[in-house]
Specification:
Elements: H1 22-48, H2 51-79, E1 87-90, H3 92-121, H4 128-149, H5 166-195, H6 200-227, H7 234-244, E2 251-261, E3 264-273, H8 279-284, E4 292-301
Parallel strand pairs: 3-4
Antiparallel strand pairs: 2-3
Helix pairs in contact: 1-2, 1-4, 2-3, 2-5, 3-5, 3-6, 4-5, 5-6
């Protein structure tokens, strides 16, 4: 068989990963904004003696680094999407970026907690007015960054798909953590200023560390599941099974569905039937819209039951 005859059965494995994703440009803009605010908050936290403000600045630093990893993941996935060394394209680089961001979130949650506990044991004087102004400015910047990233709900997918742009979700969670820390810093500084509860400042740092750690664990689970080829959504597997078994004769013996990119899947289905169809005919039964971009169907003829 000539090589040119094989083209009918060959196809690209880029699966759209070679195009610039919406989150890439947004992430780059947020990196620039975050880097500027990071310098301002760290300097102000040291100058005015606010642990909550310094923690917010340190978060900015960690998140600028994490966002840079997210940006690199976008660029790498796009540039290597057609590299034949990647069996199913570079879609999982997206999940890898999310996983890396989750690890950084966890590390800086520990750093926040440690610094806050130390400040509880060794309190220092806080210049409240200046610290509050900078904290409010930080909150405004974080709000702008969340709007730019444009993720309405990073915890849920759509239409039954739970694996969307985890790289963007990671970036969003980093910015959300910054915004949350800014809010806690403002509350702590106001309480300290008007009621004299200076301990509220490091206490809020501990609360913030706990919340960030929880977000980190959730992102680690979702991105780690993709990297380990955890089975795709039950709703999609159910629809695939129903489509194959619609003739009443064919039965699905095994189905393996895994994510190979944001909302796209590969699947291997083993079909057993007394009067089996060809693999191509079974593939034609699969409706569009489930995100299955690479499908392999293995067909076996059922052994007649002894009568």
């Amino acid at each position: 068989m000539r090589n040119d005859e094989l083209h009918r059965w060959q196809h690209s494995h880029a699966f759209g990963q070679d195009t610039r994703r919406p989150g890439e440009r947004r992430t780059l803009i947020v990196i620039a904004i975050t880097a500027v605010m990071m310098v301002v908050e760290i300097a102000a936290g040291i100058l005015f003696g606010s642990m909550a403000l310094l923690a917010d600045g340190l978060h900015m630093a960690s998140h600028a680094t994490a966002l840079s990893i997210n940006a690199f993941a976008y660029v790498y996935a796009r540039r290597h999407a057609r590299n034949a060394e990647y069996s199913f394209g570079t879609g999982k680089v997206n999940a890898l970026g999310g996983f890396s961001g989750a690890i950084l979130l966890a590390m800086f949650a520990l750093l926040m907690a440690g610094e806050s506990i130390d400040r509880l044991l060794h309190p220092i004087e806080i210049v409240f007015n200046q610290a509050i102004v900078v904290a409010v400015l930080g909150l405004v910047v974080n709000g702008m960054s969340m709007f730019i990233l444009g993720v309405k709900d990073p915890h849920h997918g759509h239409a039954g798909h739970s694996h969307h742009d985890l790289n963007l979700k990671s970036a969003y969670l980093h910015v959300m953590a910054d915004a949350m820390t800014s809010v806690l810093a403002i509350v702590a500084l106001l309480v300290g200023k008007y009621f004299g509860f200076v301990w509220m400042d490091p206490a809020m740092g501990i609360v913030g560390a706990f919340l960030v750690a929880r977000w980190s664990v959730g992102l680690l689970r979702s991105s780690g599941g993709i990297l380990l080829d955890r089975q795709g959504p039950e709703s999609v597997r159910h629809q695939l099974r129903e489509s194959i078994e619609a003739d009443g004769d064919s039965r699905v013996a095994e189905i393996h569905l895994w994510s190979i990119g944001p909302s796209i899947y590969a699947a291997v289905i083993v079909v057993v039937a007394h009067n089996p169809e060809t693999p191509d005919r079974y593939k034609e039964r699969i409706p569009q819209g489930f995100g299955v971009v690479h499908l392999t169907v293995e067909v076996h003829r059922a052994t007649p039951t002894p009568g």
